[in-house]
Amino acid sequence: MIATFEVLLRLLVWLLLAPLLPGIINKVKAWVAGRRGPPVLQLYFDLAKLWRKGVVLSTAVSPGHIAGVAVAWVSLVCAAMLLPAGPSGAPLAFRGDALLFVYLLALARFCTASAALDTGSAFEGMGAAREVSYAVLGEAAIITALLTLGLQSGSVSLTTMLAPAAGAGAALLAAGLFAVLLAENCRVPFDDPNTHLELTMIHEVMVLDHSGPPLAAILHGASLKLLMFSVLLAEAVLPIGKLSPPAAAAALAGSVLTVTVGIGLVESLLARLAFRRVPLLLTTAFLLCLFALLVAWKGGHL
Amino acid sequence: MNPGWLLCIAATGMVVGMFSAFRAPRLWLLTSLTGAIAALASAIWILKTGARWDWQSSVAIGGEALHLQLDALSAFFLALLAVLGGVGSLYQRGYWTDKTHPRSAPSGRAWWNAMLLNMGFVLLVANGLHFLIAWELFTVCAYFLITRERQHREVRQAGWLYLAASHAGTLCLFAFFAWLAARTGSWELGPMRDRTELAPLFWLALFGFGLKAGMFPLHIWLPSAHANAPSHVSAILSGVAIKMGIYGLVRFSSWMPVPDAAGWTVATLGVVSAVLGVAFALGQHDLKRLLAYHSVENIGIILIGLGFAMVATAHGNAAWGQLALAGGLLHVWNHGLFKALLFLGAGSVLHTTGTREMSRFGGLWRAMPWTASLFTLGAVAISGLPPLNGFVSEWLVFLGLFDAVSARGPAAWTAVPAAVLLGVTGALALACFVKVCGVVFLGLPRSKVAEQAHECGWTMRLPMLVLGAACVAIGLAPVLFWPAIASASSAWQPLWTDSAPPAPMQTLGAFHITIAALAMLAAIGLWLRVKRNGLSRAVTWDCGYAVPTPRMQYTAGSFAGIITGWFSWILKPKRHQHPVKENFPAHASYEEHTPETVLEHVVEPTGSVVMRISTAVRRLQHGRLQAYILYLLIGLAALALLALMGGAK
Q: Are residues B170 and B269 in the same domain?
């Protein structure tokens, strides 16, 4: 009973905190540009509004269009349940959950990309094609990062893998994971969440035909994914398992905030890359993770 | 009732079915299904008890006494054969009927049973000579099944290529078994791990069985054969026939000593097959050819598991080897199930539209909701996504590889690229199946045939439902299937006798059930919310364009374009285009297809060189007697010269 309650409580924390991140990023961007910007809680207002709105569906779509959104959201939430939030570990930890985490993100991708093709729109087709193609390179980088963490901790469970610090290769791993975070969450320089030109978008263009509650689920899922990647990045670098609970919680919160501000700064200072350069940057992210793996390998012998 | 009697019933069912195929199709279906169920029961018996059934007969075939045996390894493959044989029999009742194919359907049923029977024998015999006989018979039966529509040139070519390639493989196996018999003095097969001098023979087996399994670059026959065969035949070819090659590799890597490099080689070939198989699949526009290339990919995943298990046995039977083998073996079942499901789904589409060209489909979910949902289920499974069966086996292989890396042994250096590329393969397969589902079943119909499509009948839907249910069952309750894998892997390596799963399969299953339940709840909840808020319909947003047409949709080629661009060095796609030139273009077109690179750039040039040499040599043989006498004289003179120069002793 208490265990169920605890899982539900953690779930609630994940779900409630997630929409904060895009708000912080937007605030940072506004601050750099010298604007006042939308309030930090803007996404909460948007979600609440969308949840009450009516829905316009394309005449072309199948019933899977809305079901797909639900499945994608559920798989992201389940992935969050595998990620340790701070010192007490994940609500559910078992051997091999790291791979389940990666493949749950893939399931969400399958659903969103299929829902995009469902509308029969060429623009959404483009977005879906880009999403699934760049994810190939992202997947290589994530698996390499997991191999690095697995090699350090001798485990394939996220709670144990993320407990120690990343060791000598921390900077490499952090840089690699940060690039993957930007790509997977469709931030600049891979994608521009603010653009209004369908031809140049990835994620935003896939959801053009969603509205009302399904769009709310998509936006919330995206913010949850951003939070998960920030937490993953923070915990991969920090020795979260070795700190006392309050210190660990503070360190985690601080580093997630740093990552978020970092995303905002990157977004303000960098321009979006040309699409043909995206694979290069992602390959670089993969190589960074690979070098982190090599460092971890040598580290074991020192 | 023991396995022997059950197998007897199975064989009788298949033989009676073979003879009733022409006149009594109902009796044929009944006996074939009975046979399949009996075979499945015997396989389950063996897998459950872990026992071994052995039968020595006094009947001699080819001078060798018939010796049949069913151990857990054979039973593992027999179970798959029985399931796919059964569903395939039912499916062809609706798909390849006497009405639509009056000439080819009755004989097709007979060949079907003959092939199932011979594949069964391949799994059962414990004698090299009989293995070769059964192997050859099943290969030839498959040829006749592939070429059901012989009137088409394309089908004849595919059949011919299959036959030629298969016989190149059989030739190697012939050499393998003959050599083995010569060295051991008997055709009897059995464990002989201590005879290390036999190890080099493994390379012959790898070529012969690898060719049948369709591993890269020996897969040249596979895409065209799978694409041109009737769909129930494609399902059994992809689901079981190519697994016979895997069976051969698994069987002989367990019975025989293998060279040191064997494990690495198998794993490397597996990685190459996995990545390039899916890359080629992405370049295809023919639905069944695309699925055929995915067989190459999945064979690759199986070989990664098997290869690392072999590496582990060579390095002190490390525990991660058992994980890799378990993953590989489970993937044999999984691939058989979801690939058969996908081929049957493709068959239903082909049945109603008459084309395999993906650019002519679109929006088929309206007309064929059953096929569309079951095909999508299969697509999720083959992309290795939770909560279905494909994920479970890939997860086990991954766990094996991760443990191999953590062990920091010499195996780790290969486990790192294997794990990374397995992840890449998964992402590529996902891209490919988003493309297939999106282009074939979603969006708007791109042609008249797609608009006029209709759902298939119950005889075709039921087999797909059975296969889909099996995919879901393995995904949601993997631990139930663990005893079968454990028996098979301890038959492969007797030291691995752990009956407890080495990985938390129970937890994984529970998590999968939770995901499935939550997803269903969330979908219903979201749908209710949408209904409550009010739902209106409008045309798809296409940048404000008021009258979008189905032709504006993204096509299969454009969807895969980014990735096929990365792989264009090996895919070598052929493009025919009339680009837009003038200001008021009257005509523009673009066409692209990806041929089989190994066939076009390696096998065909080699073949033409051989032909050219043979043609040149043929000039010597012209029928002029005088010249022949001259050859004789020259030959005699040369011999005499050799003798005089000191050759005579």
A: no
Regarding whether B303 and B167 lie in a shared domain, the answer is: no
Do B277 and B366 fall within a single domain?
yes
The CA distance from B518 to the nearest CA of chain A, in Å, is: 7
Phi-psi region of A272 (alpha: psi -120 to 50; beta: other; left: phi over 0): beta
Q: B4 and B153 share a domain?
A: yes
Helix locations, B237-388, DSSP H? 242-255, 262-282, 287-314, 319-353, 369-382
Distance CA B617, CA B102 (A): 47
Higher pLDDT, A86 or B42: B42
Q: Is the domain of B169 the same as that of B266? A: no
Dist. CA B314–CA B306, nearest whole Å? 12
Residue of A nearest to B394 (CA): A99
Residue range of the domain that includes B641: 625-649
User: Is residue B40 in a domain?
Assistant: yes
Domain residue limits, chain A: 42-299
What is d(CA B204, CA B179) in angstroms, rounded to the nearest whole number? 10
Task: Tell me the average pLDDT across B613-624.
Answer: 88
B390 Cα to chain A: minimum distance (Å): 11
Q: What is the CA radius of gyration of chain B?
A: 27
Q: How far is A239 from chain B (nearest CA, A)?
A: 20
Are B379 and B436 spatial neighbours (Cβ–Cβ below 8 Å)?
A: yes
**Is there a domain that residue B344 lies in?**
yes
Q: Minimal CA–CA distance to B422: which of A148, A134, A136, A157?
A: A136
Query: Do both B361 and B474 map to the same domain?
Result: yes
Chain A stretch 69-108, residues whose beta carbon is closer than 8 A to a beta carbon of chain B: 69-71, 73-75, 77-78, 92, 94-96, 99-100, 102-104, 106-107
Residue A199 to residues A140, A206, A211, B187, Cα–Cα distance (Å)? 27, 11, 20, 67
Interface confidence (ipTM) of the complex: 0.96
Task: Label residue B618 by pLDDT band (50, 70, 90).
Answer: confident
Using a CB-CB distance cutoff of 8 angstroms, which residues of chain B are in contact with residue A214?
526, 530
Closest CA to B283 of B547, B594, B527: B594
CB contact A190 to B (< 8 Å): no
| Residue among B107, B220, B97, B201 nearest B163 (CA) | B220
Read off the pLDDT of residues B473-509 as tens digits, 9 standing for 90 and up: 999 999 999 999 999 998 998 888 777 777 789 999 9
CB–CB contact A67 B523 (8 Å): yes
Out of B1-5, B190-194, B354-358, B518-522, the most confident range is: B518-522
Which of B491, B513, B531 is the last residue before a domain boundary?
A: B491
**pLDDT tens, residue by residue, B128-186:** 999 999 999 999 999 999 999 999 999 999 999 999 999 999 999 999 999 999 999 89
Looking at the fold, whether B201 and B266 belong to one and the same domain comes out as no
B189 within some domain: no
Domain-ending residue, one of B460, B491, B522: B491
CA nearest neighbour of B381 among B487, B268, B476, B247: B476
Return the pLDDT at A301. 46
A127 interface with B at CB cutoff 8 Å: no
Q: Which residues of B touch A69 (CB under 8 A)?
A: 526
B200 with B313, same domain: the answer is no
Look at chain B and report how many structural domains it folds into: 3
**Inter-chain CB proximity B442 and A117 less than 8 Å:** yes
- In B498-573, the DSSP E strands lie at 535-538
Angle between the N-to-C axes of helices B242-255 and B104-124, in degrees from 0 to 180, rounded to the nearest 10: 10
Binary contact (B518, A130; C-beta < 8 A): no
What's chain A's length in residues? 302
The per-residue pLDDT for B243 is 96
> Average pLDDT of chain B?
92
The region of weakest confidence among A6-15, A248-257, B537-546 is B537-546
* Residue B525 belongs to some domain of the structure: no
Searching chain A, which residue's CA lies closest to the CA of residue B368?
A: A62
